[in-house]
Structure formats: C-alpha cells, structure tokens
Design goal:
alpha/beta, Rossmann fold, 8 helices, globular
C-alpha cells in the first residue's frame, strides 16, 4: 500500500484536482485505488460518485468520520488522501502518521506563497518530515508557462528547501473533467497528452519514493 497525502494551508489551490487526477491515474493503471476525502466540502466524494467507468474505478472513503485512517481498505494498493482545505499540520496528524509521501500545491500568487511558507515552516517541526521519513514535494499549479510572472514563481519555488516536483499549467480542462467524474488520463487525444506530460515529473517522484520505501 502506498499512501499520498495532498494538503495545503490555503483553499482553492487545486488540491482536489491533484488528488482526483492521481487517483484516476493509478486506477487506470490497474491499481486498486482508494480516495479518502477528508475535506468537509466533499468534492472528491462527489467526483467518485460521478465516475461512471468500466475501467479505472476509484473507491471513495469519507475521511471526515472518526478514525478515518483506519477505514482504508486493507487491499488498496494506492491511497490518495484529499486533506481539508486550509488545514495545518497539527490538524493532519492522523494522516501524516500514515502517509508515505506528501504533495503540497501552491499557486503563483503572493498570498498563496506566503500561506505555503507558513505551512512548510509548521511541517518542518513534524518529526516524520524532519527525519526525512515523509518526503514533501511542492507542485506549482495553474501556471501560465509563457508568462514572466509564472517563470519568476517557478524560479523562486526552486530555491525553497522543499523540492519542487512538478509544474502544472492552467487549463479549464480540469473543471470540465471534474464535473464528469473524469481525469486527464481517461483520454488520449493529442491535446490532452500535452497536459498529461505535466504530470510525469510528479509521478516519477512518487515512484522513486515508493521504490525507496
């Protein structure tokens, strides 16, 4: 079992999009996949409920209930945890204790980056993070690759002490796919493949962590 916690100190950064896309990818790859929605908004649960597919089904788990980490199916091979929006590390201790990797999305704005700095500073005091047992990776989300502003953000994030593991471009495709219970990896058109390539560095980073463990 490999467990990925997707968390951020700020809402609206694409946390659920990353969680559902990862879950969809793993399920389509033939892995028994569970998606734990610990966010009271229930967006990941809603996505799972809309996911009417023959291949790539994702098991939904309500993570807002008591003892949510103990509700993970024993036979699950991949588990993606969608943390509550705006939760700080102290609020996530139950999930941090069981996670094998942690993904932190950040948007290219001053407010989002400041919130992420506070989140990462608090994470640094978590023993599993400080010891390296829980790797943490940043994902720069909703970038406009050809703009100077996005390029400056990527350069700044690259200098942070936490690894920048992926750059995801801004696109309305995620909004449309979410409403259908789909993810990028459900499709194979040329335009979608360009967006799928954005995910490969993140997937490679997660593969390295899984093999190391």
């Amino acid at each position: 079992m490999f467990r990925i916690l997707v968390a951020s100190a700020k809402g609206g950064v694409g946390k659920t999009t990353i969680a559902t896309t990862l879950a969809g990818h793993y399920a389509l790859a033939g892995k028994r996949t569970a998606l734990i929605d610990a966010d009271p908004q229930g967006s990941s649960l809603s996505w799972c409920g809309k996911r009417q597919v023959d291949v790539g089904r994702v098991l939904a788990v309500d993570g807002t209930r008591r003892n949510a980490p103990q509700r993970i199916p024993e036979k699950a091979q991949r588990v993606v945890i969608d943390a509550p929006a705006g939760a700080m590390p102290r609020d996530l201790s139950g999930f941090i204790d069981i996670a094998d990797a942690m993904v932190v999305p950040v948007l290219p704005s001053v407010l989002d980056m400041e919130a992420t700095v506070r989140f990462l500073n608090a994470l640094a005091d978590v023993p599993r993070v400080a010891s390296g047992k829980l790797p943490v990776g940043l994902v720069a989300n909703r970038l406009k690759p050809r703009t100077q502003a996005s390029q400056q953000v990527v350069e700044q994030l690259s200098q942070w002490p936490v690894a920048l593991v992926a750059h995801l471009r801004d696109t309305q495709a995620y909004v449309l796919l979410s409403g259908l219970g789909k993810c990028l990896f459900d499709y194979h058109s040329e335009s979608v493949r360009d967006h799928q390539k954005d995910w490969e560095p993140l997937l490679q980073w997660l593969r390295r962590i899984r093999k190391r463990g």
